[in-house]
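Long-time lurker, first post. I've been practising inverse folding by hand and with some scripts of my own, and I keep getting stuck on stretches where the structure tokens seem ambiguous. Below is the full token string for one chain I'm working on. Before anyone asks, I'm not after the true native sequence, just a reasonable design that respects the backbone. If someone could post their per-position residues I'd love to compare against what I wrote down in my notebook.
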């Protein structure tokens, strides 16, 4: 069932601005998500967050990110605005970080923080989203895809790590055990801007959605947006 937004005028093309943390996520949106959603007349525009007047990338401070989200929601209110930020290592000033309920459930944690961010931004066209726990977690959807770049022994190690968890999104966010830290430890020479998006493309969106519940829910929400009054 499509989500309807009666405050919007009727139109056929739906546009969504996607704020991302880095070049890898930007490429993933352009090369994987854009093609998929265009089939539904939904057009994505990835935006790399600014950390200063001359630098881009990374959510180092929510105070620096919030004005960018607010500005885009206001200046283009005929479009939607969403985010693809890592749950891992969110800044201390992120909404809800000081009141986060004690839970080991990564989905409850992400949903709580998303709700708090939505309440803080306060725009009807804003759709908050956090990656659980980070982009590299998606790559554990099928470690065999690393075989195009790394030896079988490395792929076997990644697969063994994946098998320890209920899903890629359950791989924890410790300083040395987050998905990116595990991949870097196993895969000498791994470079996120080079390998990250290419491996994700090899895995394929269908597999990522099957393996990653929270990511799939976000993408489903985007797919089901209706720009009409119904």
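-- Answer (accepted) --
I ran through it position by position. Result:
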């Amino acid at each position: 069932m499509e989500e309807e937004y009666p405050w919007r005028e009727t139109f056929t093309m739906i546009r969504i601005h996607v704020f991302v943390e880095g070049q890898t996520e930007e490429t993933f949106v352009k090369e994987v998500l854009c093609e998929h959603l265009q089939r539904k007349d939904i057009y994505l525009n990835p935006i790399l967050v600014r950390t200063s007047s001359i630098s881009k990338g990374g959510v180092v401070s929510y105070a620096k990110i919030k004005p960018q989200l607010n500005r885009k929601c206001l200046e283009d209110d005929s479009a939607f605005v969403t985010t693809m930020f890592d749950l891992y290592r969110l800044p201390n000033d992120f909404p809800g970080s000081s009141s986060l309920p004690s839970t080991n459930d990564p989905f409850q944690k992400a949903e709580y923080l998303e709700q708090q961010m939505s309440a803080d931004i306060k725009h009807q066209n804003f759709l908050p989203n956090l990656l659980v726990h980070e982009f590299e977690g998606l790559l554990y959807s099928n470690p065999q895809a690393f075989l195009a770049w790394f030896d079988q022994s490395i792929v076997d190690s990644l697969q063994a790590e994946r098998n320890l968890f209920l899903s890629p999104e359950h791989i924890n966010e410790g300083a040395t055990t987050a998905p990116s830290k595990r991949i870097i430890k196993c895969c000498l020479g791994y470079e996120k801007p080079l390998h990250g998006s290419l491996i994700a493309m090899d895995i394929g969106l269908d597999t990522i959605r099957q393996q990653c519940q929270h990511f799939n829910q976000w993408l489903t929400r985007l797919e089901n947006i209706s720009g009409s009054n119904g």
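A couple of notes from the structure itself: The first strand starts at residue 3 and ends at 4. The CA atoms of residues 98 and 174 lie 18 Å apart. Happy to go over any region you disagree with.
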